[in-house]
Design a protein that fits this description.
Radius of gyration: 21 Å
Number of helices: 18
Helix content: over 70%
Number of strands: 0
Shape: globular
Length: about 475
């Protein structure tokens, strides 16, 4: 096999792992679209419905880093299969649910499944392919399917709910999960750290509580508003717990997340780029949804079509991301992706009351922005996994997946709060809503530009640590490609 060619087995492994990642991205948005219908069918209040989203985000983000490290120690393939089994069971429970409690149980199981499977799948993907063009190609497709899954979920959720009922937004996962559970044991080889270390329990508990407080704080901000004391108590608790986690990790003989890894510019800045690209994209989609339906009076169907075009741009970006990274490096690709995403967001300050002009503008700009968004996703994933030995890939995958889940939770409440504040002077009129959308999307663009500048100045090429002798040449080649 040459360094540029995939074997038949590698193609099957890639399809299996990428298919699983696509399903988890789909899960994040597909049920959200069906929430109003679920509420009507199960007689749930808006506050009760919000917990369907919050419980998923809490269980996914809160356990992501811990599960990634457990995969390093006890087997990524094993964790991958456990996660797929949990997803299948949870989805079946959700599909048959006849009361709110069972829907909550289903979403918790789906969230835990995401925390178990996402870092394991990413680690299996990176350890199945050497650093360089092949891994970049795999990560390019992974990024494309992550963003496409989020966009397709929004459209498919509406279609399934209208044609077959909301239960099929859950049932969809069951046959896919069963298929993966049948094929994965024979295709995927076990991957684990050669020497199993003692699990850092204090670090695991602290980071899980910190992430739970952070996600719950932002989720409550969206439901209760930023003036709620509960929101600020949760966010303050998260800040304190993150500080304790850093202190624990700096002193632990077997840290959950070694400080030396967390302090790497490629890891820290790569995840910062990932945090911004995911959070600003999810916040942008929310604000544009409000604009389309509240200002332009667009139907839910036309709104979904607009974001399907975003998905098409994102998929195209994923198909070419590896070539761009191999040519100009991960850092430059990340900066370019963030700037393109931000530039297209900035154009939305030109949105007005004309349906035709506004809709066409969104189609073009979201397609270009989605292209940049996926370039940023792929390059940040390459950045945070480059130069690390296989024994740290579960940690890197956990950090990357955790960044994604936390970012999805942060983007909407932050930009929604900015938009609401900016549009408050005009009341709930269309002009007021439009002013708020303009301001929120301008902040979106500025945040992406600032982070792109920081990465351009501070990012350094990752160095390999404790890499196996036979992979030294591959790592050196990858470093040259990433240098940009």
């Amino acid at each position: 096999m040459t360094t540029e060619t995939l074997t038949g087995r590698q193609r099957l492994i890639m399809c299996l792992l990428l298919g699983a990642q696509f399903m988890f991205a789909l899960d994040f948005s597909i049920v959200t679209v069906a929430l109003p219908v679920i509420g009507d069918d199960l007689d749930m209040t808006p506050a009760e419905l919000s917990w369907i989203v919050t419980l998923f985000a809490l269980s996914a983000a809160g356990l992501m880093l811990l599960m990634g490290r457990i995969g390093d120690y006890y087997g990524r393939k094993r964790m991958f299969l456990i996660g797929m089994a949990l997803l299948t069971i949870g989805s079946a429970i959700g599909g048959f649910a006849n009361e709110p409690t069972l829907v909550y149980v289903a979403r918790i199981l789906q969230g835990v499944a995401t925390a178990v499977t996402a870092p394991a799948a990413l680690a299996l993907l990176t350890t199945s392919f050497p650093e360089g063009p092949l891994r970049n190609k795999a990560l390019g497709l992974n990024g494309a399917l992550l963003s496409l899954g989020f966009a397709v979920g929004a459209v498919l959720g509406g279609v399934l709910t209208d044609l077959l009922g909301w239960r099929f937004t859950f049932f969809l996962n069951v046959p896919v999960g069963l298929l993966v559970l049948v094929l994965a044991p024979a295709l995927i080889k076990e991957s684990t750290e050669p020497i199993r270390q003692k699990l850092d329990v204090p670090g695991a508990v602290t980071i899980s509580l910190a992430l739970l407080s952070l996600v719950l704080g932002f989720s409550r901000a969206e439901a209760k508003g930023w003036s709620s004391p509960q929101v600020w108590i949760l966010l303050a608790a998260a800040a304190v717990l993150f500080s304790f986690f850093w202190l624990i990790e700096s002193r632990s003989p077997h840290p959950l997340a070694a400080v030396t890894v967390l302090k790497r510019p490629s890891v820290a800045l790569g995840n910062l780029g990932g945090l911004l690209t995911f959070s600003m994209e999810s916040g942008k989609v929310f604000l544009l949804t409000i604009y389309l339906q509240r200002v332009l009076d667009s139907s839910a169907f036309l709104t979904g079509i607009a974001f399907a075009v975003l998905g098409a741009g994102a998929f195209t970006g994923g198909m070419v991301a590896a070539k761009i990274i191999n040519k100009i490096g991960a850092r430059n690709t990340l900066v370019f992706g963030l700037l393109l995403q931000g530039a297209t967001a900035a154009t939305f300050v030109l949105l007005g009351h004309s349906f035709a002009a506004g809709y066409v503008h969104i189609l073009v700009a979201t397609a270009l922005g989605g292209f940049g968004h996926v370039l940023a996703i792929v390059s940040y994933t390459v950045a945070v996994t480059s130069g690390l030995p296989d024994s740290e890939q579960g940690l890197a995958g956990g950090l990357s997946a955790m960044t994604q889940q936390v970012a999805f939770t942060l983007g909407t409440p932050i930009l929604a709060a900015i938009a609401i504040t900016a549009g408050a002077t005009a009341g709930a009129t269309k002009d007021g809503i439009l002013d708020g959308v303009h301001t929120g999307l301008l902040v979106d663009a500025l945040a992406l530009a600032v982070v792109a500048g920081l990465i351009a100045v501070l990012y350094k090429v990752p160095r390999a640590t404790a890499a196996p002798a036979e992979s030294v040449q591959t790592v050196e080649t990858a470093e040259a490609e990433v240098a940009g």
